[in-house]
Amino acid sequence: MIVDDQPGIRLLLEEILKTEGYEIKTAENGKEALDKIVNQPPDLLMVDYKLPIMDASALLHRLEESGVVVPAILMSGLAEELEGKKDQFPMVEEIFAKPFNIEDARERVNRILAKKTNN
Fold this sequence. Notes:
There is one protein chain. This protein has 119 residues and is of the alpha/beta class. The chain has a single domain, classed as Rossmann fold. The protein is built from 5 helices and 5 strands, in the order βαβαβαβαβα. It has helices at 7-18, 30-39, 56-65, 79-83, 102-118, and strands at 2-3, 26-27, 45-48, 72-76, 92-97. It has a 5-stranded parallel beta sheet. The relative contact order is 0.17. This is Two-component system, response regulator, stage 0 sporulation protein F. Keywords: Phosphoprotein. InterPro entries: Bact_response_regulator, CheY-like_superfamily, Sig_transdc_resp-reg_receiver.
């Protein structure tokens, strides 16, 4: 699932990951994502750190409180700042700096999903 308030980012990531054969769901804020995830948790959550209504921090904490564990990638223009906070989010496996390299994003997503499949 891709969660970003910028439609262009959602569309770009959706197209990239669909070419890899993944089924993609999207949300534009944390509340919308939470509502969708409760019904059907995704294999991977790609979420922008700063979101309207419910930000990534609140979303990840709400999921943990609900017992939903989903590997996550945080995306942010402030990626260096987030690296120091990564320990606060046990589900976060990667932090993507925006703007990101498309090939790098594809490889990192594939690696996380392959690791999940092998566990």
